[in-house]
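Work Package 3 (structural annotation) set out to generate three-dimensional models for the target panel prioritized at the project kickoff. During this period the team completed the workflow that converts sequence records into discrete structure tokens, so that structures can be stored uniformly alongside our sequence database. As a representative example, we reproduce one entry of 153 residues exactly as it appears in the project archive.
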Amino acid sequence: MKLYDSESIGRYMSHLHRLGVSFLTKEYEKYGIGPGQYQFLIQLYLEDGLSHDELTERISIDKANTTRAIKKLEETGYIEMKVNEQDKRKYHIFLTEKALVAKDEILAISFRWNDHLVGMLSQDELDTLYILLRKIARNNPGYFFEEEEKLNS
């Protein structure tokens, strides 16, 4: 029997996902941000003014979940929606002053989790991990990291 024959990649991914949700939920709770919202806020920190559809695509989640998350972030004062001047049926989502003031702290939480996950890896191991994860992701539906890869090449 080969090494890893009795193991599943999905098992590890599921385990890490559950740990991450638990960690991030606890850390973001003090900001009134739940597990369904922080991903959207982080995407808006990367590029403010995205549309509902752009957020849905970047987070790779269905439109209904995007709508719920956006509504919650709007209710808690982190975002505001503005009508698209070219198409009045569409909205763009912008960060509020409250979100901008909390930006460094909110991003630091995400960075701490990432560092916790990969902090023990050497740079070569980390490079290999990203190469392999990209390869796996490209082979599955909903892959949307092409633009990020171009920027990092």
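The two ends are 38 Å apart (CA to CA).
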